[in-house]
UniProtKB/TrEMBL annotation:
Signal peptide: none
Naturally occurring in which organism (per UniProt): Roseateles asaccharophilus
UniProt name for this protein: Rrf2 family protein
InterPro entries: Tscrpt_reg_Rrf2 (IPR000944), WH-like_DNA-bd_sf (IPR036388), WH_DNA-bd_sf (IPR036390)
Pfam families given in the database record: Rrf2
Length: 150
């Protein structure tokens, strides 16, 4: 089963954007992500609606952050992406007639819900500023200089 990597990808894009003072074009961000600019534009749509990014058209235009990194949590970004489910597991039958399967679904459903709630709570505690600080610490420790490219 294919995993939904949009949250990871968007966080990557936003941190690249935070590293530059100039607007970033979809083409530039696509190169950083090794993807197509159309993918970037799709990802940015929900973020723009939430106010996390803004775009300007024309020469010198591109994507810019709409809020300081301290005011954006990973949970906020997850919500802006439409709150996709974290877990790729589910029930064999969503509405079983079998009492055994009903018991299995009850136990697994409760565990899945608890795990997702715990993960979402944690994501709302982590800001993009924290990710940026971690990146800068890793960059300094790596000895790669000021470059933030791959």
């Amino acid at each position: 089963m294919k995993r939904d990597s949009r949250l990871s990808g968007v966080l990557h894009v936003l941190l690249h954007m935070a590293e530059t003072q100039e607007p970033a074009t979809s083409e530039q961000l696509a190169r950083a992500m090794n993807t197509n600019p159309v993918v970037i534009r799709r990802l940015m749509g929900g973020l723009r609606k939430a106010g996390f990014v803004a775009s300007a058209k024309g020469h010198g235009g591109g994507w810019v952050l709409g809020l300081p990194l301290e005011r954006i949590t990973l949970g906020d970004i997850h919500a802006a992406l439409g709150a996709p489910p974290f877990l790729a597991v589910g029930h064999r039958d969503e509405q079983p007639r079998c009492l055994v399967e009903q018991a299995v679904n009850g136990a697994l459903g409760a565990a899945y819900a608890e795990a997702e709630a715990l993960l979402l709570k944690r994501l709302h505690q982590v800001t993009l500023a924290e990710l940026s600080r971690d990146f800068h610490h890793r960059l300094q420790s790596s000895g790669r200089g000021a470059s933030h490219e791959h």
